[in-house]
Amino acid sequence: METLDVTQIEPRFKHPTIFEKFDNLADGGAFIINNDHDPKPLYYQLLAERGQIFTWEYLENGPEVWKVKIDKRPPNADETIGEMVTKDFRKAQVFKNFGIDFCCGGKKTLKEVCDRKGIDATLVETELSAFKEEENTYFDFDTWELDFLVDYIINTHHKYVKESLPFMVELSNKVATVHGGSHPELVEISKIFSLLAKDFKLHLLKEENILFPYIKELVQAKKTSQSLSLAPFGKVDTPTQMMETEHEKAGEDMQVIRELSNNFELPSGGACSSYQILFKKFVEFENDLFNHVHLENNILFPKAIALEKEIVFD
Question: What mean pLDDT do residues 213-218 have?
């Protein structure tokens, strides 16, 4: 990486030279400045004139030598995974392929997640860049009215969960009973999923009977320019935070099940049809959970919070 020795530059040309160097950087490029004092004034000037498009990292902090690495951040460097999927839902499958949680973990940037999981971010970005905007034929959920989105979530994802959970709990208990002796992880999987099912049923009830009706009231109040009475739970961010916490717990439970089952891999010696069906249902359920939670955490809840701020309350 190139180092610019600022001490060798005439004082009146120092900042212009550094700015020129920065402007000529490619997105994602970086250089190091070497100085004989803290160049913090440059940081504030760069921030004022170029905005938050760079990172500033001290490599040496004096007292005689100061070295700072300046990176030119690529466009959308702060864009979260959830925001990326909101703009183009096809990218959800890319994240899924890399084992990246775009729903419960959707508020993190790609770099943050890749650094934590030890994934090469360049590989992920290459997969993501394969999509072109005009090819997007998926539903544009981000443009939907919130009451319509609520109905879609209930009629698609809630319906799927309600229909799937009883069968999956029964099947996981059966497989654990029959094969738990030779595969003890199945017993633990059955226990975890049974608790997940119990908790998630209550979760759906709270959404359908408390949170979602209130969101629909917000939409109606906005459309009719009418005032609204404050809900018994207070502001909408109270229940949405609770729902997000419960989403995260469900995602963590499924991650544990995935790990215990070695990514839903069937035993090498073969497996009965119930065993095979159970693991296929786990994959299907996890995919639906990711999509379901993404719609709520990254689209519905933030927009409901923003909408509530526009409403006049009695």
Answer: 96
Instruction: Give ∠ CA 263-264-269 in degrees, rounded to 5.
Output: 115
Q: Is 43 exposed, middle or buried (0-12, 13-18, 19+ CB in 10 A)?
A: middle
Cis peptide bond N-terminal to 39, omega within 30 = no
Task: Please choose, from the candidates 288, 304, 289, 295, the residue with its C-alpha nearest in 3D space to the C-alpha of residue 240.
Answer: 304
Tell me the torsion sign for CA atoms 107, 112, 117, 119. positive
Structurally, at CATH architecture level, domain 3-72 sits in: 2-Layer Sandwich (3.30)
- Tracing tokens 């049974």 back to the chain, one arrives at 194
Q: Please, is 208 exposed, middle or buried when counting C-beta atoms within 10 Å of its C-beta (0-12, 13-18, 19+)?
A: middle
Tell me which residue of 56, 55, 92, 93 sits closest to 74, measured CA to CA: 55
Quick check: 197 and 285 in contact, CB under 8 A? no
- Sheet of strand 30-35: strand arrangement: 3-5, 30-35, 66-72, 54-61
Residues of the chain with CATH 3.30.110.40: 3-72
pTM strictly above 0.70: no
Residue 117 has a pLDDT of: 83
Q: Tell me, what DSSP letter sits at residue 140?
A: -
Query: What residues contact 165, with CB distance under 8 A and at least 6 apart?
Result: 197, 200, 201
Give Rg (Cα) of the chain: 25
Place 1 in a pLDDT band, splitting at 50, 70 and 90: confident
